[in-house]
Design a protein that fits this description.
131 residues; alpha+beta; 7-stranded antiparallel β-sheet
């Protein structure tokens, strides 16, 4: 049961990455630590020069996947931040602490976004910039 949840999650992420067009996957690492713990590290380079780095540590507890840590960083071809989602505990005043999103000129309080949504968000930005 526990392993099935993690396998489903990893399969869903891999499927979304495989559907991306005009990208080069520089790194795709699934580190299975135990039956209920996995780390995921992905580095995707878009043809336009954008870079998306995805890092998360997941654990299964009581039939649910819990993200222990995540960092989803997206930058442009000149290495300038486009956005970064993470749960580093450095904005304790936010309502949804520790979840937040860094933008080029501010940090915003957010409800945690899924890795699948972040991949789609980055792809949408890349696609719109190419058009």
């Amino acid at each position: 049961m526990l392993r099935d949840l993690l396998t489903e999650h990893l399969s869903a992420v891999e499927a979304v990455v495989r559907k991306l067009k005009e990208v080069y996957v520089e790194r795709y690492e699934e580190e299975i630590l135990t039956d209920n713990r996995v780390n995921l590290r992905i580095r995707i380079r878009f043809k336009s020069g954008y870079l998306l780095e995805l890092n998360e540590a997941n654990m299964v507890e009581e039939s649910a996947i819990i993200r222990l840590y995540y960092r989803y960083h997206f930058q442009d071809e000149k290495n300038r931040l486009v956005f970064r989602y993470d749960n580093a505990p450095h904005f304790p005043g936010f309502e949804n602490f520790p979840h937040h999103k860094h933008l080029p000129d501010k940090v915003t309080d957010i409800i945690a976004s899924s890795i699948l949504n972040v991949i789609e968000e980055a792809n949408d930005i890349d696609t719109s910039d190419r058009n």
